[in-house]
Design a protein that fits this description.
InterPro entries: MobC (IPR008687). By secondary structure, the chain is mostly helical. It has four helices and no strands.
């Protein structure tokens, strides 16, 4: 496909801003166009998922520390209930973000 020099410059700047190649920008833009969302919206949801992944990893570390202390002492640690509650809350947030991605891929974008 041929584009003018001005269009090419615009595509390159936009791709650079999103840290992708021009080809990736065009593919992603096409994929999300029918879903009623922008590339920025989709990237924000994905960034939220990565943040939640890091949070879940931190909580998993806490669970491991609690398990180690419980195994060493034979006593249930006081932090256990709060940590398990945090696991449930993060799982709900992850599910919500995945649902948002799934809806946008089916064309029912909620943003």
């Amino acid at each position: 496909m041929r584009v003018s020099d001005a269009e090419e410059g615009y595509l390159r700047r936009l791709a650079l801003a999103h840290r992708v190649s021009v080809q990736r920008l065009l593919v992603e833009s096409t994929m999300v166009a029918g879903a009623g969302e922008s590339l920025a919206d989709r990237r924000a949801v994905i960034a939220n998922l990565f943040g939640l992944y890091r949070l879940a990893a931190n909580i998993a570390n806490n669970v491991n520390q609690i398990a180690k202390a419980t195994n060493a002492t034979g006593e249930v640690q006081a932090e256990l209930a709060a940590t398990l509650d945090a696991v449930r809350r993060v799982a709900v947030r992850i599910d919500a973000q995945i649902d948002e991605l799934s809806l946008s891929q089916r064309g029912g974008g909620s943003r």
